[in-house]
Amino acid sequence: FRLSSLIGHISTCPSLIGQCCQRHPGSVDEFQEELVIRPLHSGDIYASFQFRTLWDTDFLQEGQKVSHYRLFPKSLGQVLSKFSVRELHISFTQGFWRTMQWGQPFIPSPPGAELWVWFHDTVSDVDGNWKELTNVLSGIFCASLNFIDLTNTVQPSASFKPLGLGNATDHRFLRYATLPREIVCTENLTPWKKLLPCGSKAGLAVLLKSEKLFHSSFHSQAVHIRPVCQDEQCTSKAWELRQTLNVVFDLYTAGQGKKEWSLFKMFSRTLTEACPLATSSKVYVDITDNPELFELSPATPLLSQAVVLGDRRTYSVFDLTRAETFGQLRSLNLLLRWKGDGGEMLRPLLHAERYVAGFGLQTGEIHTVIYNNHPYRAFPVLLMDSVPWYLQLYIHTLTVTSKSRDNKPSYIHYQPAKDRHRPHLLEMLIQLPPHSMTEVTVQFERALLKWTEYTPDPNHGFYVGSSVVSALVPSMVAMNTNFTQDQPLFSSFVPVKEESSYFVRVYTEPLLVNLPTPDFSMPYNVICLTCTVVAVGYGSFYNLLTRTFQVDEPSLPLAKRLANLIRRIRGVPLLT
Amino acid sequence: MGLLSDPNRRKALTGLLTRLNTPICIVCYLAGIVWFMGLAFEPFTLRTYMSENAMGSTMVEERFSSGERALSLAKEFDAHKRQARGMPVEWLVKAMQSRGLEVFTQSFSRKLPFPDENKERYMVRGTNVYGILRAPRAPRTEALVITAPCSPGNTNNQAVALLLALAQYFRNQIYWAKDIIFLVNEHDLIGTQAWLEGYHHTNITGMEYSPLQGRAGSIQAALSLELSSDVITSLDLVLEGLNGQLPNLDLANLFYAFCQKLGVLCTIQGKLQRNDWDTAEGYTHAAQTMMLMVLKQACGRSWGDHGLFLRYHIEAASVRGINSFRHYKTDATTIGRLLEGMVRKLNNLLERLHQSYFFYLLPSLSRFVSIGYYMPAFGLLAVILLLRVSFPGLCHCFSVSLQPSSPGVLTVLTPVVISHLTGVALYLLPVHLQEMAVEHFPVSETEAVVLTAIAIYTAGLALPHNTQRLLSGEGTEQGWKVLKLTALLYLAVLLGCTALINFSLGFILAVTLVPITASITPHMPKALYAVVMVLLSPAFTILYCVFIYQELIEAPVSVSEGWMLFLSVISQGILDHALYGSLVYPLLALFIYPCWLMFWNILFWN
d(Cα B233, Cα A191) in Å, to the nearest integer? Predict the structure, then answer.
């Protein structure tokens, strides 16, 4: 009954933006969906889906059991209450976001899987909860999150602050882990889609076809759960579940080299309807560079401006809850056609990369290079590095140089690794001078693992997760600090505290490091050889060295022996 | 060991070895040589096989078809190269960018220690251009490299063009799991060295270069392409790298497999494979191929751009197109397909190439000799040194030398130290004295360096007379025995270590040094033995190698040409050491030559 009334409500609603801000006493939960399409400089195209489910409950405060679920997925709700989770962020990414060509993504994520969780401060056994939680999530998302254990979990002191309500600062309740080797594919997408209220049956989610999503340059899907305010006054709290999916289609492999994109070409489907459960369902197309760079059809009169990532962008808005959006064909197939060609590299204000220097299997050096491309503003960044224990960092060799001058970090938090127990954690607050390149180097030695500790393909190498650079980057335009419900989802994820700067997180590439690896193909030979050497070589040498040799007496002639026999009987001294 | 703990039997064994010492040594030497020559006989070798599963079963389908376009691109590249009088950097950057690669450049400069007369260069300044094809949905952790040198003149245009055509084709494919770096390097090996040092942020040779802007993680394998004509008759695979390092045998297997698949004639050391192993010609052919590999490996230089990658644990090989006057021709499309197939298979690798052999000799592309088979040949030679240490009247030096009445430490130490100082002079002076030499003699810098080296080498021969003066007393009988004992042990260790790293070098040195060093005493006819010793000294070994090499590549030279080649080999050896860190020159100058001088000392002991 409620569903039908909601659908009726949407279809009769003249202006959805006006409506969704009002609180409906009947409908406690809310679902919004949104797709942003951004044509990129390089000719590639970036599509970012966001689905937001609000759950109007506050079970942590009251300690009561919640058994009524409407839009919010029950599997996640139970996890939240069972493990006293305050905030949960999980992302699965296949590929590396190319900042130099694509600019900043709306929500960044490192290659592989990333999970960070704030627990409620009533939890006594955080590590136990974390262990169980990772195993449960592993089942829910069909991923290898169960490989997260104490050897790759860290507690960053400053880099990961809660994004939702509450001002938790005690990082004892934070756990952060990445699995850079995790391969993301359809088996992760299916459970992710199942969390949506409409599944992949209706709304924007019909576009999420795996054969197209994985025929791309970059694929990232994430789930963010956090407590948020319901309104501006923050009188009531709600749980927010944001599911995001970012994908970049390649000009050459997916676009056949033609700078012409359409929804059909990207997803092999067009849009025909909104999700009936959604209060808002929109498609935004970034037309800031229009009409010099490309043209968009069908044209839409609805325009929206948003300040996102320090830049004022203009978007064409297609409201899927309106029938006229779909036109006479009853389907929406956006078409973008490039006119000129870009292809030049971008110079994003903040950019970071990382590599291993040196050769040989004994030592090496990790170089992290951070670029501040702002022409005249210096700003501080927080660099976080989590390095597995088998790279033994020589922390005394840590150097930070900008413009070939020593740059002393104003804050260093270093937790050394314990072999087989916990990784290195290095957090630094570094001031980046304007228009500069800052290089952080640290030397390491490669540890010799025990032979059971090698992965099944040891010659592939071992991964070191991305380092994380978090910064408040000076903004070119005034950021919007007002909290409003009708803001597009993509611009409202990270809370904006001040007008002059915006928050950016940049992940570097993960590293693949070769460790000294024995030749596993011949353990039998090795065992045989060792045993033989020990048995034959050592044994007889020891024998030769410790034994005292005496020359044998030549045996006596028969006559003397007989004489001796008689002498022994007589008891007189023997002949020699 | 029971044998040794029994004093009687021990005595018997010792007696046998002492009595038959010389015959045993001769037998060992001959057996070593015969064993080595037998390695090329086909029934004694193993057939090559693909060890890496990731490259074996999954056959790929090659679809590259723009060979014609590559050839027209080669003309365009040639025109731009002429216009720019060197590397057409801007054109290359544009060409790579328009093919959808991330393009970066690296400039480098290097002042050679003395002018290189073979390649006519002294102050080298250049730019490398490389484009990275980013694999879709890959986290920039692994990469493959395809490189083509931009050579002066008309050479290698087709290689650069084919590289660009491959880049264009590869860019449109979705199946890449590793980034692919397309590198066009200037000044052949110097450019490659600058790029590799930049990529790994090391500086081992004093190169000046600008830091690299774009990277793609750890490089798994590299292929270098050299192609100078539109059609080719055969492809040659070059494996020998710096300091005699070889890439994993699977890389050679991969090349061979694709040559078979696409019906391309393939050679190694420029020699085709023959099937008639049971005839004398067949055996000689295989032996010549193997000898060429041994000579090339022994000289420790990089025989192509690939050779410098090996130091960084990157498996690499050069593929060289050869156009001779045979009827059988292969076009650029087929070569492109061959490379496509190889790169796709390398792309399928889960781990670095490690399954197959790293130490091997190839008598043909389909047959190999593994380390287990060739090491006994060296072992038989090395054991002679040990036999001589223990028996010919030297064994009681162990006990004697420990007594205070034995010849003083000084007697032995003086020749050792003086020999090594000569070695140091041989290593340092030629390059440092070149200016002085050029001032006083009418020679060029290169000639000055080489001639200084030869002069110091020859001056070292006068040492025994000088050392005698330094010694306090007469050289005693015990004295030379202790010196010979030391020298034999020293040589055994030196050759053993060398052979482990670079078998060919170790073996060649052992063949020439072992007979004379094993038999030398001061009581021999001095003049005759002095001539023999000089003829078997390291420098003459190099000279013989030059002649044998020329003979084997079917370009025999006259004595004077051979001498000129010998001089240029020496200067190249010194240059290779300075530019790329080749270790053959310091090994010869600092260790082998002083060791040989110690034996020279024994001959003139009195």
Answer: 56
pLDDT digits (tens, 9 = 90+) for A515-535: 998 877 666 777 788 888 888
pLDDT tens for B145-176 read: 999 998 888 888 999 999 999 999 999 998 99
**B-interface mutation test, from A220, A221, A460, A508, most B Cβ less than 10 A away:** A460
- Asked if A21 has any chain B CB less than 8 Å from its own CB, the reply is no
What residues 67-126 of chain B have any CB closer than 8 A to a CB of chain A?
A: 97, 100, 102
Q: How far apart are CA B149 and CA B230, in angstroms?
A: 17
Alpha helices, H only, B348-408: 371-390, 397-402
The mean of the pLDDT values for chain B is: 88
Chain B touched by A86 (CB under 8 Å): no
- Which region among A389-398, A416-425, A455-464, B440-449 has the lowest average model confidence (pLDDT)? B440-449
A102 has a pLDDT exceeding 80 = yes
Q: Do B136 and A253 touch (CB under 8 A)?
A: yes
Is the per-residue pLDDT at B177 higher than 90?
A: yes
Task: Indicate whether A14 pLDDT > 70.
Answer: no
Cβ contact A252–B172 (<8 Å): yes
b (16+ CB within 10 A) / e for B471-491 = eeeebeebbbbbbbbbbbebb
Q: Give the pLDDT confidence score for residue A1 in this predicted structure.
A: 36
Q: CB count, 10 Å around CB of A237? A: 18
- pTM for the complete prediction? 0.90
Residue position matching structure tokens 């090659």: B62
Residue of B nearest to A461 (CA): B351
Q: Is B351 on the interface with A (CB under 8 A)?
A: yes
Min Cα separation A204/chain B (Å): 23
d(CA B311, CA B296): 17
Q: Which of B343, B336, B329 lies closest to B70 in space, CA to CA?
A: B336
* pLDDT, position B168: 93
Contacts of B229 (CB under 8 A, 6+ apart): B158, B321, B323
Contacts A–B by Cβ distance under 8 A: 108
Please report residues of A whose CB lies closer than 8 A to that of B311: 359
Chain B, window 127-166: residues with a beta carbon less than 8 angstroms from a chain A beta carbon: 134, 136-142
Environment class of A451 (CB within 10 Å of its CB; exposed 0-12, middle 13-18, buried 19+): exposed
The nearest CA of chain B is from the CA of A334 a distance in Å of 24
Sign of CA dihedral B415, B418, B424, B428: negative
Contacts with B350 from chain A: Cβ below 8 Å: 457, 460
The overall longest dimension of chain B from CA atoms, in Å, is 85
Are A219 and B142 inside 8 Å of each other by CB? Answer: no
Question: Sheet holding B46-47: strands in order across?
Answer: B46-47, B367-370, B360-364
DSSP category for residue B128:
E
With a cut of 50, say whether residue A10 has pLDDT above it: no
- Tell me the CA end-to-end span of chain B in Å, nearest whole number: 41
Give the closest of B100, B200, B350 to A252, CB-based.
Answer: B100
Mean pLDDT estimate for chain A? 85
Exposed, middle or buried: residue A559 (CB in 10 Å: 0-12, 13-18, 19+)?
exposed
User: Chain A contact for B210, CB < 8 A?
Assistant: no
Residue that has been written with the tokens 């430490």 in this structure: B409
Q: First and final CA of chain A: distance in angstroms?
A: 123
Look up residue B282 and give its amino acid. Answer: G
Q: Using one digit for the tens of pLDDT, what is the confidence trace for B524-564?
A: 888 899 999 999 999 999 999 999 999 998 888 899 999 99
**Residue type at position A215:** H
User: Per-residue pLDDT tens for A172-198?
Assistant: 999 999 999 999 989 999 999 999 998
Note whether B213 contacts A: Cβ–Cβ < 8 A: no
